[in-house]
């Protein structure tokens, strides 16, 4: 079953290649969506795909790339989005 989530990652997650790390992992799991830096030093994004791919992404978001320090990841289910073909960095 396809699902879509929205997520926000807190901690030392900007300036440590978190977005490119997330894009690479999400793409390798067959997910579509986006990731971007936001005010307050956070990273947020959306991911869409099968449950297994979403769970794999959530697991790696919890640690991030080696230079990151993740303190919290918040997620919520949201409506599916039609027409996406890749996972992008904004």
Question: Helix segment count?
Answer: 2
The span between the termini is 27 Å
List how many beta strands DSSP finds. Answer: 5
**How does the overall form come out from the CA principal axes?**
globular
Strand portion, in percent?
35-45%
Average of pLDDT: 97
Order of helices and strands: EHEEHEE
Question: What portion of residues is helical?
Answer: 10-25%
- Rg computed from alpha carbons, rounded to a whole number of angstroms: 12 Å
Helix-and-strand structural type: alpha+beta
Task: Trace the largest sheet across and list its strands.
Answer: 4-1-3-2-5
| Residue windows where pLDDT falls under 50 for at least 5 positions | none
Major beta sheet, specifics? Answer: 5 strands, mixed
Description:
The structure is a single chain. The chain is an alpha+beta fold and 90 residues long. The radius of gyration is 12 Å and the shape is globular. The mean pLDDT is 97. Strands 4-1-3-2-5 form a five-stranded mixed sheet. It contains two helices and five strands, in the order βαββαββ.
Characteristics of this structure?
single chain; 90 residues; alpha+beta; 5 strands; 24% helix
């Amino acid at each position: 079953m396809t699902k879509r989530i929205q997520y926000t990652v807190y901690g030392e997650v900007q300036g440590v290649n978190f977005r490119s790390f997330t894009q690479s992992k999400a793409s390798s799991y067959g997910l579509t969506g986006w990731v971007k830096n936001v005010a307050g030093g956070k990273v947020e994004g959306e991911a869409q795909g099968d449950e297994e791919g979403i769970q794999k992404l959530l697991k790696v978001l919890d640690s991030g790339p080696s230079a990151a320090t993740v303190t919290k990841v918040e997620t919520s289910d949201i409506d599916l989005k039609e027409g996406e073909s890749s996972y992008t960095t904004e």
